[in-house]
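HUMAN: Now follow token order:
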Amino acid sequence: MKILFWLLAVPTGALAALVVLLNLAGRPLSAATPIWLSVLAALAVLALLAGARRLAIAGRPGLAGLLVVGSWLLFAVVLIVNGLARQRIWN
């Protein structure tokens, strides 16, 4: 179970760090997403990953894996809600 946690957490952390670095370098994810929002969401993902790492080291890798999946959902929900809030055409 620990291997599964690390297989989920390492790419997630790498992508979140990449989002932060790209945004701080001035390259937004999209024209509709403000830089501050994507950086904030990526930092929240990294914070959740840090908590998941503590759980994995403490012997709770299953719960830590769920926290990693929860971080994916957090990032997706933040960006989807932002996209819907900025939608100009509502059918």
Helices lie at 2-24, 35-57, 61-85. The mean pLDDT is 89.
